[in-house]
Amino acid sequence: MSQQTDLSLLLNTLEQLGNYEFKDDAEQQHAERAVRKVADKLQKPYDRILEMCGGTSKDAALKFGVDVDLWRKWKDGKRVQTGDELAQLTESDPSLMNGLLKHLATWNIVEEVEPSTYCRTNFSDHLARDEFAGCINLQFEGFIPAFHKLPEYFRRHGYTRATDSKKSPFAYAMDFDGTFWDYCGVNPKLNECFILTMSGYNADRGTWLDAYPPGRIVDHLEEDYPLLVDVGGSSGHDVEKLRQLAPEKTNKRLVLQDQDFVIEKALGNLNSGITAMVHDFWTEQPVKRKSELFSHPFCAVVCCLIVNHVF
């Protein structure tokens, strides 16, 4: 068998991998990491740096799609459309729309099936979801400005790590005296984007109850005590999942904790079986009984500081 034949077989196998049904998220992520690692090795160094730098233009094109409501309108219409048709659909400039779509096609976000004619993809259909739009908006409203100012911040601070959360690179970029969470408190749009982003993160993965058996919480704690305290639980989507599994056993025994502006928003949709509590997790934890503690995926140091206020 020739080397060329071997390569053809390998490429065919890779094509089939895109339609492979993985048994779980872990298997899918393992395959994804392996393919990315191979792709990085195949790419020439200068091509790789050009792709990295070009990522910002891709992000801007995605944001354009969000701002003109391209993704939702396209998903609601024909799967294959010309750039001019999509420009008319979104009331935008045809030449601009065609240019951006051609660019997005190079990233496999949409597919150019004929010159200036484009087909939706599974990914572009997902961009129509509020959670995906929220994630893109979060980058432009919060993270991209912070990263843009990061080199300047390090130059001015002697290339040292920030130790004060109220004087962080984010606070510097936003010219704001406070933490990211404080900034969300005075910027409802950014806070909504963050909530949508985390909702999307959770929706596309197995729930935390898949890794942490609910029986450990529901069946083994005394009835006089709260079952679970969700620290920094945002809208309460995680405690709600547990409540739905055992409504009677969990009634009035689940606690949602977050900042005041988050809790105020969550109360509108929170089930009466869940107790909402304003709490700053940098301070002493008010619930001290034999409850299970559920903290969200902050870095290890932050998690240790949160837990230190509990025991």
- Average pLDDT confidence is 86
Q: Could you give the count of β-strands?
A: 7
Rg over C-alpha atoms, rounded to the nearest angstrom: 24 Å
Distance from N terminus to C terminus (CA atoms, Å) equals: 66 Å
Count helical runs: 17
Describe this structure in words.
This protein has 311 residues and is α/β, with parallel strands linked by helices. 59% of the residues lie in helices and 9% in strands. β2 and β3 (117-119) form a beta hairpin. Mean pLDDT is 86; it is low at 297-305.
Characteristic terms for this protein:
globular; 311 residues; 17 helices; alpha/beta; 7 strands
Summarize the structure.
The protein is an alpha/beta fold and 311 residues long.
Blueprint of the fold:
Layout: H1 3-17, H2 25-42, H3 45-67, H4 70-75, E1 80-82, H5 83-90, H6 94-106, E2 111-114, E3 117-119, H7 122-126, H8 130-156, H9 169-174, H10 180-186, H11 188-203, H12 208-211, H13 214-218, E4 228-231, H14 237-245, H15 247-250, E5 254-258, H16 260-266, E6 274-278, E7 292-295, H17 300-308
Parallel strand pairs: 4-5, 4-7, 5-6
Antiparallel strand pairs: 1-3, 2-3
